[in-house]
Design brief:
- The protein is an alpha/beta fold.
- It has a single domain, classed as Glycerol-3-phosphate (1)-acyltransferase (3-Layer(aba) Sandwich), CATH 3.40.1130.
- It contains seven helices and seven strands, in the order ααββαβαβαβαββα.
- α6 packs across α7.
- The longest helix is centred in the first third of the chain and has 19 residues.
């Protein structure tokens, strides 16, 4: 099993998966993408997005113009074959029932190594009345990296993705993180159609899951 895990963690597997899934999404879901010129390539970066479906991670991962690692609930890694697959796709496990320090440290190391980290700011699949968590702002503050507000939505069957201009965290205090989170959500909402816009309230927490 270790051999399979190492095999699928090769760059060739990730690059092939990105190419194949993006082609699939374009053909079968009419995927269109805007704003990729807003994605920085000179340091680590947070992709902070709303969350509407289980297809969000592969769609965003295949359209982001650099490697991005997504947090995924630890239950997805319990099957050893799925674990190998998710690791190959650059996902990493997080325990959403608590502040998972292992996941936080891994995310910070990735950011400081110059890699992108994907965070769904509402913590779970999209509900319009669900406020946002400050995890993206917390990680960006600790790693000193920008946040790219990202909107994903559907028009019928078709997927749409819009990457906004990057922004810096306003500060490291609890209030600063919550204000940054509200700005991120406002930026996301400005790119979403009216029917898909969400509550911009920031939860008083630094849980990045």
């Amino acid at each position: 099993m270790e051999t399979i895990t190492k095999w699928v963690q090769g760059k060739w597997f990730f690059d092939l998966a990105v190419f194949v899934f993006r082609l699939y999404a374009i053909i079968f879901y009419g995927l269109t993408v805007k704003g990729t010129e807003n994605i920085p390539h000179d340091r680590g970066v947070i992709l902070a997005a709303n969350h509407i479906s289980s297809l969000d991670p592969p769609i965003l991962g295949s359209t982001f113009t650099r490697e991005v690692r997504f947090m995924a609930k630890k239950e997805l890694f319990e099957n050893r074959y799925l674990r190998a697959l998710y690791l190959g796709l650059r996902s990493f496990p997080v325990d959403r029932q608590k502040s998972d320090m292992g996941a936080i440290k891994f995310a910070l190391r990735s950011l400081k190594d110059g890699v992108g980290v994907g965070v769904f700011v509402q913590g779970t699949r999209f509900r319009q009345d669900e406020g946002a968590f400050s995890g993206a702002a917390f990680l960006a503050s600790r790693a000193n990296v920008p946040i790219v507000p990202t909107a994903i939505w559907r028009e019928g069957r078709k997927f749409r993705v819009h990457y906004g201009e990057p922004l810096e965290v306003l500060g490291s205090s609890k209030d600063d993180l919550e204000k940054t989170t509200q700005v991120v959500m406002q930026r996301i909402n400005s790119m979403l159609p009216d029917s898909a816009r969400a509550d911009t309230t920031a939860h008083p927490t630094t849980d990045p899951a």
